[in-house]
């Protein structure tokens, strides 16, 4: 399967085109309390395995970029961040 009809890669003065990741794979982010979580990351249902506290009703733990983030499900507001989380 090739490129769509009429596709022409951009050439910049003899340079080969550089790969640019899609927007959802932008640079790593260090989350902070009070920020709005953008939905990337993986939900953590096995919080005991990672020695996390049980999430209160209406919250969930999410792992992203080596961090565990406790997020309010309804609003997406971050209420707790554990940096440099180590997986087992």
Question: How do the strands and helices of this protein lay out in sequence?
Answer:
Layout: E1 42-44, E2 59-64, E3 67-72, E4 78-82
Antiparallel strand pairs: 1-2, 2-3, 3-4
How does this structure look, described?
This protein has 88 residues and is mainly β. The chain contains no helices and four strands. It has strands at residues 42-44, 59-64, 67-72, 78-82. A four-stranded antiparallel beta sheet has the order 1-2-3-4, with no helix packed on it. β2 (59-64) and β3 (67-72) form a beta hairpin. The chain starts with 41 loop residues before the first strand and ends in a 6-residue tail after the last strand. 8% of the residues are buried. The model has no long low-confidence stretch (mean pLDDT 78).
Concise summary:
Helices cover 0% and strands 23% of the residues.
* Residue runs with pLDDT of under 50 for 5 or more positions: none
- Reading the helices and strands in chain order gives EEEE
Q: Work out the number of β strands.
A: 4
* Integer average pLDDT: 78
Strand content: 15-25%
Described by strand count, sense and barrel closure, the largest sheet is:
4 strands, antiparallel
- What is the share of helical residues? under 10%
Query: What structural category do the secondary elements indicate?
Result: mainly beta
């Amino acid at each position: 399967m090739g490129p769509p009809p009429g596709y022409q890669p951009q050439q910049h003065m003899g340079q080969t085109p550089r790969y640019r990741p899609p927007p959802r794979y932008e640079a790593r982010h260090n989350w902070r309390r009070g920020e709005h979580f953008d939905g990337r990351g993986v939900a953590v249902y096995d919080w005991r395995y990672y020695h996390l506290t049980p999430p209160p009703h209406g919250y969930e733990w999410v792992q992203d970029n080596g961090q565990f983030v406790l997020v309010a499900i309804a609003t997406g507001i971050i209420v707790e961040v554990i940096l440099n989380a180590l997986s087992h």
